[in-house]
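User: Could you go from structure to sequence for me? I need the amino acid at each position, not a summary. Structure tokens:
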């Protein structure tokens, strides 16, 4: 099977040193290592975009290339992993009842006119439009170690090694955040009718925060750390549902976030990207 993966990890942000995270680069590297190790991918099938290389233009260009290859019949599987901040932007397409879109924060994020600059923020609609062009038979698996709601920030710790939330408030709406989770760009606008071969993993529920945390002497996203561990522990043979349950059990009592899996039942009973 012809396949390609894009693993994105962003700890540093060009214009915003205060947004710094610690575990996102490790997440992307660990996802790539999981694919090439336990899941049997070739290194040539994987692209890593880390920190300054992970601009909006670079990320969308790589994904667009994958989609074009899939449309030409040259790819049958695409994997996209994202570890960075999430945020919110004003909905301009009219598809969100509360007037807010989920968005992803690239290295070159910037502000314009009191909000995020559209040229330097990735809105879920943009990813939806890209992935909507995939042929029906193409497998798409997305891993999001981020969050799109500030709700879980209440009581968050910022001491040394304390888990740090992967969310930044939008410039113009810091007091009016909505509880959000990104589903539409992978599953379609009706979350009850996901693409037949589309799978979306997210680090937390809409009212929770994905943690940037400290494990065994290094930083990782809690979601990615336990996803990799659960998949490796099963030798790559666990079904997605089994991986999810192992993750939730391992994280219970340690983190407030609960990982989510959105896909059809047949995909839940199959192994991860294997």
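Assistant: Here is the amino acid at each position, in order:
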């Amino acid at each position: 099977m012809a396949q390609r993966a894009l693993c994105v990890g962003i700890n540093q942000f060009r214009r915003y040193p205060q947004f710094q995270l610690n575990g996102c680069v490790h997440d992307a590297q660990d996802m790539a290592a999981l694919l090439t190790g336990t899941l049997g991918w070739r290194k040539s099938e994987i692209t890593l975009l880390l920190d300054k290389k992970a601009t909006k233009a670079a990320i969308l260009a790589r994904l667009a290339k994958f989609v074009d290859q899939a449309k030409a019949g040259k790819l049958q599987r695409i994997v996209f992993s994202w570890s960075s901040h999430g945020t919110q932007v004003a909905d301009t397409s009219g598809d969100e009842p509360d007037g807010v879109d989920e968005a992803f924060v690239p290295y070159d994020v910037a502000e314009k006119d009191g909000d995020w600059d559209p040229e330097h923020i990735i809105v879920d609609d943009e990813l939806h439009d890209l992935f909507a062009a995939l042929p029906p038979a193409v497998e798409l698996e997305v891993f999001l170690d981020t969050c799109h709601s500030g709700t879980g920030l209440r009581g968050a710790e910022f001491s040394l090694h304390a888990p740090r939330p992967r969310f930044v408030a939008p410039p113009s709406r810091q007091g009016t955040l909505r509880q959000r989770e990104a589903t539409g760009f992978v599953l379609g606008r009706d979350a009850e009718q996901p693409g037949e071969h589309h799978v979306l993993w997210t680090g937390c529920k809409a009212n929770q925060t994905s943690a940037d945390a400290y494990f065994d002497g290094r930083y990782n996203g809690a979601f990615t750390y336990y996803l990799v561990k659960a998949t490796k522990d099963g030798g790559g043979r666990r079904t997605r549902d089994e991986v999810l349950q192992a993750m939730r059990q391992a994280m219970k009592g340690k983190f407030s976030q609960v990982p989510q899996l959105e896909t059809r039942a047949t995909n839940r009973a199959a192994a991860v990207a294997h």
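One structural detail worth keeping in mind: The first helix runs from residue 24 to 36.
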